[in-house]
Amino acid sequence: MSDSQSIIEASSVATSAAAKATVGGAGASLLGKVTGLDPVTAIGLIIGVGGLLISVLSFFINVYYKWRENKRADEIHRLKLKELRGQCNVKD
User: Fold this and answer.
1) Which residues are CB-neighbours of 50 under 8 A, at least 6 positions away?
2) What are the tens digits of pLDDT across the range 52-89?
3) d(CA 31, CA 52)
């Protein structure tokens, strides 16, 4: 499995977990508000905030790996340009 494929899968798992946590937290908060149960509301709020944090962390992970991918692609591009210009001593 390629590096970019594993990154995409890890990102997908994190995003899915964040979405589920956010929906679960929202549901628990709504249930707590409707029934007037303060502990349930607090738990729902904690779960919702946790889902939000997971989403934000997933975003930053995606940005980091995209930066690494661009850096790697830029390096390959520069090497290809050197090769085309005859500046590299590359043997097939």
Assistant:
1) 21, 25
2) 888 888 888 888 988 999 999 999 999 888 888 877 66
3) 19
